[in-house]
Design brief:
The complex is a heterodimer of chains A (360) and B (289). With 360 residues, chain A is an alpha/beta fold. Helices cover 36% and strands 21% of the residues of chain A. In chain A, helix 8 links the parallel strand 7 and strand 8. Classes of the chains: A alpha/beta (360), B mainly alpha (289).
């Protein structure tokens, strides 16, 4: 299948609210010396054209690995990946490397976390920008350069022509992240995966990049999967949010619903740990404890050891399945009604979510 | 082409490196045009000046056969430089290719390649070269191959070690995420980022190869007498070191100058090849001017 076909098929699938990318029961395991590390444990989500899905979770929750697994970018072995990922009429997980290579770029574009290390220090910006176009679109040097300059202009870099000859170290972090974005967009992907794309940047630059992605999304009509641990960023830009913990989705739904009435104690903890402007606190609320070791997950709910509620005795022995807790597909992996268990505190989170959302 | 001119510019701006480059250029000219430059033929004997100390007509003196040492040092440059450049070229090509393969693909490729390199590396260098020459026969051509094989594991190891760290860089993953294939990733992203230690290693190896050629020729396995090479001159002069110091000092000086220049240029190249260093050098020299 050519790059054009891949995009065409993707566009067809995206029409009429059909998901562009639908991940079903994805698991990623790593063979380690200490046994099997179960990093991603049966994750399902989908994203439609023009939609933004935020995947939220702390470090080690399996967010990034699940995205890399989709594109075949985790080394197999030691990793084993199972599940399906429907994209453009094919299953990415089962796709051989050669076919998958054609999806990377025109199908799914990726922006990585650290703009300081994700550009090759010895190549000019221009060479790196044109790479994907040379691979997939077969453009010659001149045409690729023209388009590279357009892309730099698109992501808001001044005097793009001259910038093509710059080396990465001559650019600031924000500029580099814009370049990374331009690279990811260079083959007009159907899906853009932004893996902690703003985490390493200043807060003001974060907002700029987040807004830029939203604008480009409107302009280019792509689906965006925004991986982050920062709920503040999510609130401003996402349509739906999926909260991951220990390789599982523990809560998902429309962003407003999840912020207004977080049903899972982990989501509640995350929202509580957000700093709020103009509301001084002695210290930020932290979730006590650490995420579990993926090589030794607890038998029941993975959050159980840290959970302040533990509303049901099955929490310790059974993994709670995702079940509807609200309208529009708001679901959470809890056995009990957490909002009730927490009392009226949910309103606290609404304000907070809205407040930081406006900031982002 | 513009990149190459920039590179030369940066190297030249470093004054020591500029001098070293000129010295190397001179020796290169000697190697190429030696026959035209040398005042006497390579094996021309004269009865009068046997073991004569340096004079105006024989600036480096004469050897025990009455041959003009100045001419023989000039003519020896060709052999010595050719053998070392070709030998290092062989080692560079083989070693870097093997190192890239081993470091990039890991797994069994890595095991097979690196264990082979370990086996080569386990032999003392000269012993291995002698063994290869024993199989292939003596002569300058086989000496190049032998030295090339002996130095291959060094390049393979240096390359592999750098590749192992570079392959895990985010920019390699980023290149993969836009669909770049193995060949493109290795040649465009990994090779330029591992070039620095390889270049430095090459400049050092060139120096060692000159010495290795000298050693092999001394043992009668490399360049064959009466052809002059610096190694042969040095080993022949050794017999007279008490009475005729010039026979060892001048060839030794030639080796010393070339080896030193190679190291200085290698150093400057390392700085110049790193774009971060390059702009630092540019702004530093710009400020000084």
């Amino acid at each position: 299948m050519t790059a054009e076909e891949a995009r065409g098929a993707g566009a067809a699938a995206g029409a009429g609210g059909e998901p562009v990318l639908a991940v079903e029961d994805l698991t990623v395991r790593f063979a380690t010396r200490r046994g099997t590390a179960r990093v991603v444990n049966g994750v399902s989500w989908s994203v439609a054209e023009g939609e933004t899905l935020a995947v939220v979770g702390e470090s080690g929750s399996g967010k990034s690995v699940s995205m890399l697994a989709l594109l075949g970018l985790v080394p197999r072995p030691p990793a084993t990946v199972t599940g399906t990922a429907r994209f453009a009429g094919q299953d990415l997980i089962a796709l051989p490397e050669e076919a998958l290579r054609k999806v990377r770029g025109p199908g799914i574009g990726m922006v990585f976390q650290d703009p300081m290390t994700s550009l090759n220090p010895v190549l000019t910006i221009g060479r790196q920008l044109t790479e994907g176009m040379e691979v997939h679109l077969g453009l010659d040097r001149k045409a690729a350069d023209d388009r590279a300059a357009e892309l730099l202009d698109l992501v808001g870099i001044a005097s793009p022509r001259e910038r093509l000859a710059s080396y990465p170290h001559e650019l600031s972090g924000g500029m580099r992240q814009r370049v990374m974005l331009a690279i990811a967009l260079s083959c007009r992907p159907r899906v853009l995966v932004a893996d902690e794309a703003t985490t390493a940047l200043d807060v003001t630059i974060q907002a700029q990049i987040a807004e830029l992605v939203a604008e480009l999304q409107d302009e280019l009509g792509m689906a965006v999967v925004w991986i982050t641990h920062d709920l503040g960023v999510v609130a401003g830009i996402a349509d739906r949010v999926a909260v991951m913990y220990a390789g599982r989705i523990v809560e998902e739904g429309p962003v407003d619903a999840v912020y207004a009435a977080p049903a899972h104690p982990y989501t509640q903890g995350l929202l509580d740990s957000l700093p709020v402007l103009g509301r001084p606190r002695a210290s930020l609320a932290a979730i006590p404890g650490l995420p579990p070791d993926p090589a030794a997950l607890p038998p029941g709910c993975a959050f159980h050891p840290r959970c302040p509620i533990r509303g049901d005795e099955r929490c310790a022995t059974e993994v709670p399945p995702l079940r509807p807790v609200g309208a529009d597909g708001h679901r959470a992996a809890v056995f009990y009604d957490a909002v009730a268990a927490r009392g009226g505190e949910a309103t606290d989170a609404i304000e907070r979510g809205a407040g930081t959302g406006g900031g982002a | 082409m513009r990149g190459l001119r920039d590179l030369v510019g940066v190297v030249v701006r470093n004054r020591l490196a500029a001098v070293a480059l000129v010295v190397l250029g001179l020796f290169l000219a000697l190697a190429v045009f030696g026959d035209a430059i040398a005042p006497y033929g390579r094996n021309e004997q004269q009865v009068a000046p046997r073991l004569q100390p340096p004079t105006w007509s024989h600036p480096f003196g004469a050897d025990e056969h009455g041959r003009d040492l100045f001419s023989r040092v000039i003519l020896g440059a060709e052999t010595s430089l050719r053998v070392s450049v070709v030998a290092v070229g062989i080692a560079l090509l083989a070693g870097v290719t093997l190192g890239l393969l081993a470091g990039y693909y890991r797994g069994w490729v890595d095991d097979v390649v690196m264990r082979l390199m370990d086996m080569l590396f386990a032999f003392p260098a000269i012993l291995l070269a002698i063994a290869i020459l024993a199989i292939r026969g003596r002569g300058a051509g086989n000496a190049m191959i032998a030295i090339g094989i002996v130095y291959t594991p060094i390049f393979a190891r240096v390359t592999r070690a750098s590749v192992l760290s570079v392959r895990e860089e985010v920019y390699v993953r980023a290149a993969r995420s836009v669909g770049a294939g193995d060949l493109r990733i290795v040649t465009r992203h990994i090779l330029p980022n591992v070039a620095t230690p390889i270049i430095v290693q090459a400049s050092i190896s060139l120096a060692f190869a000159i010495l290795a050629e000298a050693a092999l020729s001394f043992l009668g396995l490399g360049t064959q007498r009466p052809e002059p090479s610096w190694g042969i001159l040095l080993s022949d002069g050794r017999d007279y070191v008490q009475d005729a110091w010039w026979l060892t000092v001048f060839p030794g000086l030639a080796i010393f100058l070339v080896v030193l220049s190679l190291n200085v240029v290698g150093d400057a190249l390392r700085d110049a090849l790193d774009p971060r260093q390059r702009s630092a050098v540019e702004s530093a020299t710009g400020a000084a001017a």
